[in-house]
């Protein structure tokens, strides 16, 4: 069943020849033809023979929870800021730095963990990244000043930045091609679940009268909220022990016995053992020599080489276009979304448009206002509604991703969401603002789901995690600049960053037209 991979890819693996089957729904006749043929079977057909069933639903649950835990850890920052500003005496520019440093950590983590994943394995790297995320997220709950909170959120972001791209590579390499669009969309929907969970946790925990003090050390409800938000990543890391390493990665590294074992495990759980056992005559029993593991001191050099490879002629256009698109989407979405609770607060206080409020809304000079902000539940209700608004978009992507194509969904959703953002400065009532933010969230999620599919499918196994890490790193730069723009301009003229967000979303959507359409094609 296995043979050495063509010289087009580095290392050993399966030979790729024209596929006899379209993906998941192989007919019995075609299956029998594959099993009776002594020629090497392409990986796409091997993973098809392993079946689709209980294993993949368990895989979706575990990887989905990892994705949700990343959302919880990232988005908890937007909820803690309105309350941390009282205790830590923060101004808008400092709040912008905290969110920006979170994304700076994610940018660093995306590059580091992406390269490590392509070298040491998807599962191992994902577990370490989740552990780093959980550990430093938990420690940040004990921060007593702006500097310590800033540094610990940076370190937590390094973990988040690694787990996001790696989980997509890991998940995608288990899937038959005709299932990838729907399953990728289902995985992406867990980000919405994380968004809902973090809003619900904020609503349940932060208004509680919790205030423990020992001398100058203080631990109150928003800190407890941050600690609780670090637990989902730890749970996801432990659940991954129940899953095998990616067979596609093992194949690429020449670890044939482990690859066969992983595929047989999938087949056993899916109750298609006979398929692979019948194909045993096609298995290449000679074990290729595994590539020696390089010391960590050489990983940096390898990482640079991997990034340079993204800009070789075969991948240059894809890398550049995806980087531009990701930058525009992250600048637009996270620049606006992380400040959404702040905009809701301004709408409430001004009784009109968010941009009609003049001056800093910081509560640092008013102890009574600091007490009141803990009981302003509208912040949580509005954010919970905005988070739930992603549900229709996730359902649409599950139904339409394979029918309409990744690129068409990406272009349409970015242009429409950019048009919606343009209306924010002229909205003059809080209820209209909430409705518009719900629409923005519902449409934007289509962009992210399509981007996740495109980034995963447009690069070969040897570059996939590096490409995801690199483009996500470019996206983090956009998120950093978006948050800094809001932090610097929101008290001067909030219409400026909002119009910038709108313009970049439209530009990013148009640029996506330069990408090829990978729907229904084999992954390399």
Could you give a short description of this structure?
With 524 residues, the chain is mainly alpha-helical. Helix content is 70%, strand content 2%. It has helices spanning 28-36, 43-49, 54-88, 92-120, 122-140, 146-172, 177-205, 221-229, 231-239, 247-252, 256-270, 273-278, 299-309, 316-337, 340-350, 367-373, 378-388, 390-404, 406-421, 430-457, 464-493, 495-511; strands at 211-214, 217-220.
What's the SSE blueprint?
Elements: H1 28-36, H2 43-49, H3 54-88, H4 92-120, H5 122-140, H6 146-172, H7 177-205, E1 211-214, E2 217-220, H8 221-229, H9 231-239, H10 247-252, H11 256-270, H12 273-278, H13 299-309, H14 316-337, H15 340-350, H16 367-373, H17 378-388, H18 390-404, H19 406-421, H20 430-457, H21 464-493, H22 495-511
Antiparallel strand pairs: 1-2
Helix pairs in contact: 3-4, 3-6, 3-7, 3-8, 3-9, 4-5, 4-6, 4-13, 4-21, 5-6, 5-8, 5-9, 6-21, 7-8, 7-17, 7-18, 7-20, 14-20, 14-21, 14-22, 15-17, 15-20, 17-20, 18-19, 18-20, 19-20, 19-22, 21-22
Low-confidence stretches: 1-29, 278-292, 359-368
Class per helix and strand makeup: mainly alpha
Write the element-wise H/E pattern from the N-terminal end onward: HHHHHHHEEHHHHHHHHHHHHHHH
User: How many DSSP E strands?
Assistant: 2
In spatial order, strands of the major sheet run 1-2
Summed up, the helix count is 22
The amount of beta strand, in percent, is under 5%
Work out the helicity level.
over 70%
Major sheet attributes? 2 strands, antiparallel
Task: Describe the global form.
Answer: globular
Radius of gyration: 24 Å
Taking all residues together, what is the mean pLDDT?
77
**First-last Cα distance:** 17 Å
């Amino acid at each position: 069943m296995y043979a050495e991979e063509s010289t087009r890819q580095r290392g050993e693996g399966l030979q790729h020849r024209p596929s006899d089957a379209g993906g998941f729904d192989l007919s019995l006749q075609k299956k029998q033809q594959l099993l009776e043929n002594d020629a090497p079977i392409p990986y796409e057909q091997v993973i098809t023979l392993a079946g689709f069933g209980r294993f993949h639903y368990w895989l979706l649950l575990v990887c989905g929870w990892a994705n949700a835990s990343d959302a919880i850890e990232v988005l908890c920052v937007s909820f803690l800021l309105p309350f941390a500003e009282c205790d830590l005496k923060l101004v808008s520019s400092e709040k912008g730095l905290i969110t920006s440093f979170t994304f700076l950590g994610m940018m660093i983590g995306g590059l580091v963990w992406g390269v490590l994943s392509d070298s040491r394995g998807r599962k191992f790297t994902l577990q370490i990244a989740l552990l780093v995320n959980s550990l430093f997220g938990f420690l940040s709950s004990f921060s007593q000043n702006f500097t310590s909170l800033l540094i610990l959120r940076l370190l937590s972001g390094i973990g988040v930045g690694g787990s996001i791209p790696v989980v997509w590579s890991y998940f995608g390499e288990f899937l038959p091609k005709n299932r990838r669009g729907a399953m990728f969309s289902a995985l992406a929907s867990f980000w919405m679940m994380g968004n809902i969970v973090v809003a619900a946790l904020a609503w349940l925990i932060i208004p509680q009268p919790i205030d423990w003090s020992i001398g100058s050390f203080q631990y109150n409800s928003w800190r407890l909220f941050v600690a609780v938000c670090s637990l989902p990543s730890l749970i996801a890391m432990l659940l991954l022990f129940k899953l095998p390493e990616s067979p596609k990665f093992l194949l690429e590294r020449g670890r044939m016995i482990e690859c066969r074992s992983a595929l047989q495990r999938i087949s056993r759980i899916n109750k298609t053992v006979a398929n692979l056992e019948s194909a045993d005559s096609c298995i290449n029993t000679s074990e290729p020599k595994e590539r020696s593991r390089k010391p960590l001191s050489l990983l940096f050099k390898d990482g640079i080489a991997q990034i340079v490879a993204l800009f070789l002629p075969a991948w240059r256009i894809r890398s550049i276009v995806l980087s531009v698109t990701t930058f525009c989407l992250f600048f637009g979405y996270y620049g606006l979304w992380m400040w959404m609770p702040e905009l809701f607060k301004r709408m409430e206080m001004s009784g009109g448009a968010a941009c009609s409020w003049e001056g800093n809304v910081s509560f640092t000079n008013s102890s009574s206002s600091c007490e009141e902000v803990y009981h302003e539940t509208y912040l949580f209700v509005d954010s919970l509604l905005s988070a739930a608004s992603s549900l229709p978009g996730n359902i649409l992507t599950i139904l339409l991703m394979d029918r309409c194509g990744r690129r068409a969904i990406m272009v349409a959703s970015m242009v429409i969401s950019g048009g919606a953002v343009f209306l924010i400065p002229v909205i003059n009532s809080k209820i209209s603002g909430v409705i518009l933010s719900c629409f923005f969230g519902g449409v934007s999620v289509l962009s992210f789901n399509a981007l996740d599919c495109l980034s995963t499918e447009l690069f070969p196994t040897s570059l996939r995690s590096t490409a995801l890490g690199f483009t996500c790193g470019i996206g983090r730069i956009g998120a950093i600049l978006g948050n800094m723009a809001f932090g610097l301009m929101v008290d001067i003229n909030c219409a400026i960053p909002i119009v910038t967000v709108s313009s970049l979303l439209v530009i990013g959507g148009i640029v996506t037209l330069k990408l090829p359409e990978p729907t229904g094609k084999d992954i390399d």
